[in-house]
Amino acid sequence: MKDLRRYLVLKYVQYLVLSSSNAISTFLGLLGSLYTIIILQSAKVSSKSTAVLISSLAKADILVSVSVVSEMVVWTFDVSISSTAFTSALLQNLLTANTHISCLLLSCVAFEAYLITFFPTESRHLRTVKNATLTSRVIWILVTAECTLFQTDDLLKASSTSAPNRSPCVLLFHFSSTAAALLKSISYFLGILLRIVNVYIYYKIFFSMSNR
């Protein structure tokens, strides 16, 4: 459990403290996720809702791995990509999806910690493996839909730039562009809100434990 707590601290710093990821935090995060996945396979770790959320958090770094490995292959072997703009947008959207999934799951872990600290008995029926699994799946589905919208918008932008007069999907282009811009604004303000909420939750937990 100490290792899992350290991993959570690392992830909080990576996604909710730092303004943007860097090479060091990304590398440490990948190592921590790999180690956490191995730990969670052990029979010594009980199957609880927190473990389910942490497992989903660690698996989210698969998106980062795909992006990093792809860039390394292109750079090392000088691989020529037929659609550079599409691939670049896809890799960036994978990183965005990883960030959003991680922030939401970390907030779920924080909320669960709040319930355990202040409402341990009353919230027991909520803190189940089934609910944690359902929450993780919903987060993955929503962020996947978001990533798909962003990728579609980038693809339509590239198509309209290369052949602006031939595009048969002008209405689709305007709709996806507007929807993507709106979703990015919502994601930005939601990210700020999650940072504030997480700080407040752990502030309350810290002083509650201190008073005890």
Automatic annotation (TrEMBL):
Q: How does it sit in the membrane?
A: Multi-pass membrane protein
Report the GO molecular function annotations.
Answer: G protein-coupled receptor activity
Coiled-coil ranges per the record? Answer: none
One of the GO biological process terms = phospholipase C-activating G protein-coupled receptor signaling pathway
Show the InterPro entries listed in the entry: GPCR_Rhodpsn, GPCR_Rhodpsn_7TM
Q: Which Pfam families match?
A: 7tm_1
Cellular compartments annotated: Membrane
PROSITE patterns associated with the record: G_PROTEIN_RECEP_F1_2
Membrane spanning segments where? 12-40, 97-119, 171-203
> Which keywords fit this entry according to its UniProt record?
G-protein coupled receptor, Glycoprotein, Membrane, Receptor, Transducer, Transmembrane, Transmembrane helix
Q: Give the GO cellular component terms, alphabetically.
A: plasma membrane
Q: Give every G-protein coupled receptors family 1 profile domain span.
A: 32-212
Q: Please give the name of this protein.
A: C-X-C chemokine receptor type 3
Give the gene that encodes this protein.
CXCR3
